[in-house]
Structure formats: structure tokens, C-alpha cells
């Protein structure tokens, strides 16, 4: 079983920044990153790192958010800059091994408000 520990959520002002982290008990993955879900909306991809090192970003966050990894700590980070009201959501860490059911973190709240 893979366990995911999320941190870094909270309150930020529009134009501000937050950094999320997700630490995994496992250290092999085919994809690891973040999804988010706002009330009344479907869960959407925010950013992910693939096993070959490539990164993929959702259209709405491209150019504002950056995902990075620290292999020594089995952790991925999501640096969120230029935050907007519409970034308000619960953010879920996602961990994927090919051929297996994905693992999900419990979610961390990000709220952007003035």
C-alpha cells in the first residue's frame, strides 16, 4: 500500500502564492502529481510528473504553476503563483503505477480570497 501525505494548503490572496507538497511512502511511479476539485465541478488535472521526467499541466494553470520532484524525499511539490479566485478547490495528490488502481491523498484545501 502506498500512503500519500499532503501539506501546504491554506488561504492566499489573489496574485499570491502557495506551495503544496505530497510525500509518498512508495518511490516508484509512472505518474505523480495533483488534481483539484471545486464545488459543483469535476475533478481536473492540475499538474503531473511522468516516470520519464516529463511534466504535464492543465490548461488553466499553465504558466502559473510549476511541479517539481525530490527523489531523495519521495516528494513532489506544486508551486502555485499568480493565484486566482478560480484556483479555490480541494487539491488531491495522485500516485499512479501502470496496471494498478491509482492512489489518492485525502485532499488539502486551497482558498483564494481577498
Q: Give the DSSP E fraction (strand runs of 2 or more residues).
A: over 45%
Largest sheet: 7 strands, mixed
What is the H/E string? EEEEEEEEEEE
Radius of gyration from the alpha-carbon trace, in angstroms: 13 Å
Average pLDDT works out at: 94
> Multimeric state of these chains?
single chain
Helix content: under 10%
Kindly state the number of beta strands: 11
Number of helices: 0
Unreliable runs, pLDDT <50, ≥5 residues? none
Q: Structural class of the helix and strand makeup? A: mainly beta
Shape: globular
Question: Distance between termini?
Answer: 40 Å
Characterize the structure shown.
The protein has 114 residues and is mainly β. The protein has strands spanning 4-7, 10-12, 18-24, 31-37, 44-50, 55-57, 65-70, 75-80, 89-96, 103-104, 108-112. Strands 2, 4, 5, 6, 9, 10 and 11 form a seven-stranded mixed beta sheet that branches. Strands 1-3-8-7 form a four-stranded antiparallel beta sheet, with no helix packed on it. A hairpin with a 4-residue loop joins strand 7 and strand 8 (75-80).
Amino acid at each position: 500500500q502506498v500512503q500519500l501525505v499532503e501539506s501546504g494548503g491554506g488561504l492566499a490572496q489573489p496574485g499570491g502564492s502557495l506551495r503544496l507538497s505530497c510525500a509518498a511512502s512508495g518511490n516508484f511511479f509512472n505518474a505523480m502529481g495533483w488534481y483539484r476539485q471545486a464545488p459543483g465541478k469535476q475533478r481536473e488535472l492540475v499538474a503531473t510528473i511522468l516516470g520519464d521526467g516529463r511534466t504535464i499541466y492543465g490548461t488553466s494553470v499553465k504558466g502559473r504553476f510549476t511541479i517539481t520532484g525530490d527523489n531523495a524525499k519521495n516528494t513532489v511539490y506544486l508551486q502555485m503563483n499568480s493565484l486566482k479566485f478560480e484556483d479555490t478547490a480541494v487539491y488531491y495528490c495522485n500516485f499512479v503505477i501502470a496496471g494498478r488502481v491509482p492512489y489518492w491523498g485525502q485532499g488539502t484545501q486551497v482558498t483564494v480570497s481577498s
